[in-house]
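Contributing new records

If you add data, match the layout below exactly. Sequence lines come first and carry their own label; structure lines follow with theirs. Keep one chain per record. Anything else will be rejected by the validation script.
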Amino acid sequence: MPDNTSVLLYIKQMLGDLIYINGIIATELINITENTAAIRHGEEFLNNSQCKPEHEQLKKNIVNIVKTYKRQPEEFLEILDKHVLKHLEEPND
């Protein structure tokens, strides 16, 4: 039977993984919401909306939360940073 320390370490790792997965889901849902708004109302509507900067800040906050709880493997954080924050840097056409 595993000792308490190994069980707690396992639970900590599992929670970090779940936070990472939820962070991906959250940022992708924001992207889906923006894409749906652009399809329904047009790109100009989305670009003129106050939602766009708020969504960008939410995505940054999500990435920071994930970084707090998911430290390993480091490539997971690099991929999330690159994917989520790359979208924030793309120019508006």
